[in-house]
Amino acid sequence: MHKAVISLTTGLEDPEKVTVAFLVAVGAAEQGRSTLMFLTKEAVRLATDGVAVGVACDGCPPLPDLLSRYLKAGGRFLVCPICFNSRSLDKEHLIDSAELGGTVPMWEWIGDDAAVTFSY
Questions:
Q1: CATH code for the domain in which residue 15 is found
Q2: pTM score > 0.85 for this model?
Q3: Domain total of the chain
Q4: pLDDT beyond 90 at 18
Q5: Are 102 and 80 contacting, i.e. CB atoms less than 8 angstroms apart?
Q6: 104: which DSSP letter?
Q7: Lower Cβ count inside 10 Å, N or C end of the chain?
Q8: 3-state SS of 8-62?
Q9: What pLDDT was estimated at residue 105?
Q10: Whole-angstrom Cα distance, residue 11 to residue 31?
């Protein structure tokens, strides 16, 4: 089965975009795909404790519920270390299944497998 990579550059400044990216990631992970969210720019904050909170819109699922479903389905986060460190964030506060890593670890994770990609 193909792997799924969801690249997200946006944080809570655009919660609807974050919600859509999480919905796509949850859908892939819950279908049994190996799924990786590659977080860059402001999205790196979402991989720290207590940040992925709130509801983006009327009728949107709460971000904590999406995060919980994603983790339960085995989803992983790869967090751009340049973006993370430039924001003076503490790696001790990374959530479960999140690790610092850039494009080389992302390509290593994909390997020779086919991967479906989405970018938000």
A1: 3.40.1260.10
A2: yes
A3: 1
A4: yes
A5: yes
A6: H
A7: N
A8: ECCCCCCHHHHHHHHHHHHHHHHCCCCEEEEECHHHHHHHECCCCCCCCCCCCCC
A9: 97
A10: 25
